[in-house]
Task: structure prediction
Amino acid sequence: MKVTITAIKADTGSLGGHVVPDQKMKDVISEFLDKEVGVSIIDYHVQSVGDDIGIVMSHIHGTNCSEIHKIGWDAFLESTEVAKELGLYGAGQDLLADSFSGNLKGMGPAFAEMEFEERPGETIMLFQADKTEPGAYNLPLYMMFTDPMHNSGLMLSPKMKDGFAFSIIDVEETEADSTIELNAPENIYDIATLIRNNHKYIVEKVYSRTTGEIAAVNCTTRLNILAGKYVGKDDPIMLVRCQGEFPASGEVLSPFTIAHYVSGFMRGSHIGPLKPVKVNTGLSFFDGPPVVSACAFNVKNGIFTRFIDCFEDEFWDKIRDKANQKALYIREQGFSGPAMLEDKELEYGGITDRLDKLKKDFKFTIN
Ligand code: F6R
Ligand code: MG
Ligand code: MG
Result:
């Protein structure tokens, strides 16, 4: 059976600042989606990480389906209403457009979708991150699909012997989508050359070169580019297929042991480690650190199994300790040097305003 999985995330308001949504917001989304089951969608799942709510839906309408996107949009309108009623902070923050117009692209919510013929035991991993950007997944995707240090299947499994194809998008090109396809392993240096820049070049899709099947889909929105001003970081959602011709779920998770430094954290303007957290976790320190959750699930005839929380196990407590330590190390130097982002990536505009003002007061001295 050909099924489409659509994952959408949005910040529609949260408790105590940009920390965690209220349970009632998730409840109204579930109530809303219940009515669509058997009508437009087959199944759904709702969860949150940090201040973002993520919705995963299964259906048969393919990617970029207006009807499905509208269901996601309308569900987030419902949670926005609850956020307003409760007086939560930033109600409707990511719903940038005044009304739905055909497709979620450019409207605020991040989304990742994949359509495929279901394999027996179809296994999928859902990643949702907060206080960071879609490029935060660049390094993990590179490692899980090209690096035998994380994906031993690249050596051991004949099903992965041909490697994977990467589709990389330049998100700074806003007139039209600008993408490049590069093959691993032959082009790994070219892939690395692009995706080291997490702000500009984002791994959008990965395909198996053995079967041509879709392996991973990342979201590629950049809220600040869309809105032309700071409205919150574009916290990313991603789907990865696992097992068989794809990395095993444990290989997909392996790169997240690094807790690599990413952009985001407080006011979307700092560097912090990507900390693997349990699903529905809020934030704790300096509006961060950047967090990522991972859920594994199976799908049959479009119906989801239970979603397993992959970062729940005590193994990940050690990684969380490491991430906390890395967060404290970089926070020790506050605003200095690499602890903050380059000028172009800073949010809010306050620093650029100051710099513009100060520039006028600089005096030249001829020696
Ligand atoms: C980062 C984020 C927060 C806010 C910060 C200030 O993505 O959402 O760190 O930037 O809490 O929020 P405002 O400007 O809404 O008071
Ligand atoms: Mg927020
Ligand atoms: Mg968020």
Notes: The first strand starts at residue 2 and ends at 10. The chain has one domain: 2-353. The pocket of fructose -6-phosphate (ligand 1) is lined by residues 17-18, 90, 131, 232-233, 266-268, 287 (CB under 6 Å). The mean pLDDT is 95.
